[in-house]
Design a protein that fits this description.
This protein is an alpha/beta fold and 69 residues long. Helices cover 42% and strands 17% of the residues.
């Protein structure tokens, strides 16, 4: 039930390694990371939440409106 937010593939791998829920934000390097994950395979995004920004993720978290990718 712990979320780990980042903008790089390294951040997502770290989250998965410790059993956190990986959240990718599209700010910073996030758009590039999302593009790379989509090119690698369809399974790469499984279990990863994707939001436009940290603010959008926080809004969803506070509203209890977390959506699976």
């Amino acid at each position: 039930g712990v979320y780990s937010v980042g903008d790089s593939q390294r951040d997502l791998v770290a989250a998965q390694t410790v059993g956190a829920v990986p959240v990718l934000v599209k700010t910073g390097n996030g758009k590039k990371t999302l593009q790379a994950l989509k090119q690698q395979s369809n399974d790469q995004l499984e279990g990863i939440l994707v939001y436009d920004s940290l603010g959008k993720f926080v809004d969803a978290l506070l509203l209890n409106d977390i959506q699976d990718s």
